Amino acid sequence: MDEKDYTLLQLLEENCRTPVSDLAVMAELSEQDARDRIGRLEEAGAIRRYAAVVDWERVGNGNVAAVIELKVSPERDFGYDRIAERIARFPQVRSLRLMTGAYDLQLLVVGPSMNEIARFVSEQIAPMDRIRETATHIIMKTYKENGTVFAERGEVERLPYSF
Fold first, then answer.
1. For the chain, where do the domains classified as CATH 3.30.70.920 start and end?
2. What is the domain class of 61-143 according to CATH?
3. How far apart are CA 9 and CA 89, in angstroms?
4. Nearest-CA neighbor of 69 among 102, 110, 114?
5. Which of 1, 23, 39, 128 has the most beta carbons within 10 angstroms of its beta carbon?
6. How many whole angstroms from its chain centre is CA 14?
7. DSSP string spanning the chain?
């Protein structure tokens, strides 16, 4: 992978719907070279998939999102990998990361209500072998997601001022 590949990856991450002709110009490549490089990056697994960033609050789907932190006892010869593989299978789990700090794993979970998220954690996650502790944080508002700013600041209404 070279600097041109990194440039293409950054451009695609910013907006995956950018036409290849525009990507080629921005990366200073021919259109065919850009196409070939993107194809190689897809085959190599560097590009996992193309996705949209959706403001679900604006859509009003009623779902609740939460960050779940887990303290986990690592398994000999496997570390955190096997427990992470089990947790990743749940459709409610949108992302799963191994972290430094007080907790080992961090999950982003989505469900139809706070009660459903609480039930998911208490019935599916907490009872798993090797889970020592959980902490659940409900996401109240998203200001920025994957580089996209959601919070739009409207005009501030100024009150008249007089003496």
1. 61-143
2. alpha beta
3. 27
4. 102
5. 23
6. 14
7. --HHHHHHHHHHHH-TTS-HHHHHHHTT--HHHHHHHHHHHHHTTSS--------HHHHT---EEEEEEEEE-PBTTTBTHHHHHHHHTSTTEEEEEE-SSS-SEEEEEEESSHHHHHHHIIIIITTSTTEEEEEEEE----SEETTEE-----PPPPPP---
Which residue bears the tokens 């993107």? 38
Correct CATH for 3-43 of 3.30.70, 2.30.230, 1.10.287, 1.10.10 = 1.10.10
pLDDT in tens, 106-136: 999 999 999 999 999 999 999 999 999 999 9
Name the pTM for this structure.
0.78
